[in-house]
From TrEMBL:
Catalytic reaction equation(s): adenosine(37) in tRNA + dimethylallyl diphosphate = N(6)-dimethylallyladenosine(37) in tRNA + diphosphate
Gene: miaA
InterPro entries for this protein: Dimethylallyltransferase, IPT, P-loop_NTPase
Protein name: tRNA dimethylallyltransferase
SUPFAM superfamilies (UniProt xref): P-loop containing nucleoside triphosphate hydrolases
Positions bearing the site annotation: Interaction with substrate tRNA: 103, 126
GO MF annotations in UniProt: tRNA dimethylallyltransferase activity
Keywords carried by this UniProt record: ATP-binding, Magnesium, Nucleotide-binding, Transferase, tRNA processing
Amino acid sequence: MSNQLPVINLMGPTASGKTALACELYEQGDFELISVDSALVYQDMDIGTAKPTKDELAQFPHHLIDIISPLEVYSAASFVEDASALIDDMHTRGKTPILVGGTMLYFKALLEGLSSNLPSADYAVRAEIEAMGERDGWDAVYAHLCQVDPLAGQRFKVSDKQRIIRALEVFKLTGKPITQLQAEQPKNLPYRYTFHNYALLPDRIELHKRIEKRLEIMWDIGFLNEVEELMKKYDLNEDLPSMRSVGYRQAMEFLKNSDKSIVNRKEMEDRALFATRQLAKRQYTWLRSLQETHKFTTYLTIKQAQEDLRNCYG
């Protein structure tokens, strides 16, 4: 449709190179950048989120970075509202938005809309479900989901922890299966946009090497000091969404509950590495799910993406 306006979505798992690719595109035309990252919204969380530096942000400005404190909550609905307003403003100024990041829930919400009557996240309920998983095992949590929401049980696997937690959270808050509520509620689809979806999906072995190298650099340049300063500045706890970001939770537990020995520090760094790899695994799963219902161009290497997108938008 001629009246639909273009939006470029650039997605990929952590450490895949998507931010560098977006910045390269930014230099080639009338583009503006919108961050799609649930951790980059937080102020003072810089090293552990791999946030672009102040110099980089001056050269390549990103919207939706540093917009709230680590004590606040930012939801997918908040993202859709903020991103839609930014996209519309950019189009009125003749700019094309490039949305770049790895928070697939935000991309899904923008692409598909949000069911209007689903409850907001309740972190006490989520903590209760996670405690059940740790106590009884995730097979038991999954079996409970299958009992209260058989359709969700068919759709999810026992390894889909985040989706299982959300489905049980909704059931506990409403008494109704999430699949029933989703089927009943109209979705606010952004029909006025034409989405051009691109995914960077590098080889997993190569990605794991990049993740490990990135974390080594983060520890070297003061990630642990950053978390110490955050704990001094804010009244933080492990259940805040900001502190559920990979690396931060492990560092906070280490600083609060250990003797800070070299052995304990190494164990903490290993847990952070494992959590980051698990994040990347979930991002791959989310992307493949989105690719089932939306048109995508997928790249296995940054070089491949650079060459193709340069031809498209250069």
